[in-house]
Amino acid sequence: MDIKTATALRRLRLVSGPEAVSFLLLLVCSVLKRTTDFNAVPVMGSVHGILFVLYVLFWADAWNRAKWPLKTAALYFVLSVLPTGGFFAERRLKRAAEDAVIAARARREGIVNA
Q1: Residue 37 per-residue DSSP state
Q2: Angle formed by the axes of helices 70-81 and 3-35, nearest 10°
Q3: Does a structural domain hold residue 37?
Q4: Res. 107 pLDDT band, cuts 50 70 90
Q5: Domain with 74 in it
Q6: Which one of 3, 28, 47, 55 has the lowest number of neighbouring Cβ atoms within 10 Å?
Q7: Residue 40 in 3-state DSSP?
Q8: Is residue 41 part of a domain?
Q9: Closest CA to 59 of 78, 44, 46
Q10: Structural element, H or E, at residue 2
Q11: Domain total for the chain?
């Protein structure tokens, strides 16, 4: 994995957690709007919208650079539209990055001929 691919995956991983948190907060704000006089939906909606757009841009870049199969790319996109999906995406991306680092070290040390 080259540095640009690793960077694209890291960006996607770093935005997936905040995007998931903003989605959950937006849902809470929506409930509070309907049950109380508290209305933070316009602010939280804007924050979540920006984070979602960033997620989609970083997802497209990661898909292009990592050459994911359609199934993997679709999984990461579906995780972005589920309320807690960003947490699962972050965990999977972190595990994949750690596996890539281990494989690169093994190749460099001549342990694996892959």
Answers
A1: S
A2: 30
A3: yes
A4: confident
A5: 3-108
A6: 3
A7: coil
A8: yes
A9: 78
A10: none
A11: 1
Q: Centre a 10 Å sphere on the Cβ of residue 5 and count the other Cβ atoms it contains.
A: 16
Write down how long the chain is. 114
DSSP, collapsed to helix, strand or coil, labels residue 82 as: coil
Count Cβ atoms within 10 A of the Cβ of residue 59 and give its class: 0-12 exposed, 13-18 middle, 19 or more buried.
buried
pLDDT band at 113 (very low <50, low <70, confident <90, very high): low
pTM: predicted TM-score of the whole model, two decimal places: 0.83
Question: Is 91 among the domain residues?
Answer: yes
- Name the band, by pLDDT with cuts 50, 70 and 90, for residue 69: very high
Q: Model confidence over 45-61: pLDDT tens digits?
A: 999 999 999 999 999 99
Position 108 confidence tier, pLDDT thresholds 50, 70, 90: confident
DSSP 8-state class, residue 109:
T
The residue ranges of DSSP E strands in the chain, in sequence order, are none
The amino acid sitting at 64 is N
Give the position of tokens 């579906």.
78
